[in-house]
Amino acid sequence: MAVATMVSSAGGLLAMLNENHPLLKLHALSNLNKCVDFYWPEISTSVPIMYPLKLPFPLYLVLKEEELRN
């Protein structure tokens, strides 16, 4: 049985952008992309943190593969 999760803030995902592990950053970016329409005022203040993130090529492929599955 699938359970929907309600998110009331993008704060947790935004905090993941400051983690050292690249997969956490990838997870955060992927999920922020899904909720940007709802939480843009909160997310917009972190654009300077997101902009310089450069995903290594293999991580980019993982992100694209995940988008195709969803």
UniProtKB/TrEMBL annotation:
This protein's name: Uncharacterized protein
